[in-house]
Amino acid sequence: MSHMSFQQKLLEWFAKYQRPLPWRKRYEPYEVWVSEIMLQQTQMDTVLPYFERWMKNFPDIKSLAKANSEKVLKLWEGLGYYSRARNLHESAKIILKEYGGIFPSDYENILKIKGIGRYTAGAVASIAFNQDKPIVDGNVLRVLSRVYAIPDPIDVQKNKETFWTLQESLIPKGKAREFNQGLMELGALICASQNPSCAICPLRALCKAYAKGEAENYPVKIQKKQMVKVQAAALVLENEGKYLIRRRPIGEIMGGLWEFPEWKLSKDKKMSLEQIQKKLKQAAGEEFDGKFEKIQPLGTIKRNYTHHLETLHVFHHPGPVSIRPKTGWQSQWVSKKDFKKYPFSSAHAKIIKLLEPELSAVFAEAK
């Protein structure tokens, strides 16, 4: 097929149907950088309010570099992959020191920034600076694999170079910004993973997968890994209207975030409520001094991560208790109003919502 036809159809479609995203107003490199980091494995609708709030608090690299780390994590709370927020923060400090707060325009220097790989470097270089650099993300893989009916499994690392080479060859000189965004936009809005809108796709006449009636058979993937089911428990410890939270050490998963005490109980094993409570009391007894006869279920929270499907069983230990943490983690007893000061993971932020009826009762009694 003609590259020129591909380019022309995609550029015309993007010019007409592109979404009015905030970083597209002026293509400021800092804004493009932050948006690309936020959008990694996160849906656009989720990212937009986070982006607006982030820019209100950190409008430029200098303000981000000077920010308190807990404030950075708090503004990221709910997006997951918190190392990305820490990388943004640390990189802003380096850019302020080494580049005077101006985001580097050279591709090789962009690639040196912590947390930036080949895709993000290409995205920032092409979108912010209109450089002819390729990008290949999930949307791009899907579009190219269908248009060219590429049989190579996309989740095999060595096969991805095929897509990088192809995508780079397609970029029209001087129009990388529009073309790369158009390719991603098409994958997000039209060429969806399920039920693609082939009838309104600007590339339909060029698409080999569509011509064969096999659009949903692409991209090709090898068999998915089995998901592991995990049972876990979190314990909300209360002492005179205050609640124990602890901070995960930097360097661990979700390092720097605060959480209620939590334990993994089992993998791929169903457990009754009685069994869960028994294991929870045993685990808590190994870490804390205290009695746990008053433990009551508060709710359950589902969360998924790296081939794990986890059910987090949340329990509440009400009333005055005298418990001394035995762990080496930083711990704090905080009131309801203090929760907003601390960055929590999404799951533990949901625990706070589960707590609200309990907290309302506690404060009603205190009046």
Explain what you see.
The chain is globular. It has 14 helices and nine strands. Helix 2 (29-39) packs antiparallel against helix 8 and helix 9 (138-147) crosses helix 11. Strands 1, 2, 3, 4, 6, 7 and 9 form a seven-stranded mixed β-sheet that branches. The protein folds into two domains: 3-217, Orthogonal Bundle (Endonuclease III, domain 1), CATH 1.10.340; 228-366, Nucleoside Triphosphate Pyrophosphohydrolase (Alpha-Beta Complex). With 367 residues, it is an alpha+beta fold. The protein has helices spanning 3-17, 29-39, 44-57, 61-65, 69-76, 83-99, 107-111, 118-129, 138-147, 160-170, 176-189, 208-211, 273-287, 346-366; strands spanning 228-239, 242-247, 258-259, 262-267, 288-289, 296-305, 308-317, 324-325, 330-334.
Map the helices and strands.
Blueprint (H helix, E strand, L loop, with lengths): L2 H15 L11 H11 L4 H14 L3 H5 L3 H8 L6 H17 L7 H5 L6 H12 L8 H10 L12 H11 L5 H14 L18 H4 L16 E12 L2 E6 L10 E2 L2 E6 L5 H15 E2 L6 E10 L2 E10 L6 E2 L4 E5 L11 H21 L1
Parallel strand pairs: 1-7
Antiparallel strand pairs: 1-2, 1-4, 2-3, 2-9, 5-8, 6-7
Helix pairs in contact: 1-11, 2-3, 2-8, 8-11, 9-10, 9-11
Structural class category: alpha+beta
Let me know the CATH homologous superfamily of the largest domain.
Hypothetical protein, domain 2
Number of domains: 2
Instruction: Please report the number of helical segments.
Output: 14
The arrangement of helices and strands along the chain is HHHHHHHHHHHHEEEEHEEEEEH
- Which fold name fills CATH's third level, the topology of the largest domain? Endonuclease III, domain 1
Helix content: 40-55%
Architecture of the largest domain, according to CATH?
Orthogonal Bundle
Give the C-level CATH assignment of the largest domain: Mainly Alpha
Shape: globular
Largest beta-sheet characterization: 7 strands, mixed
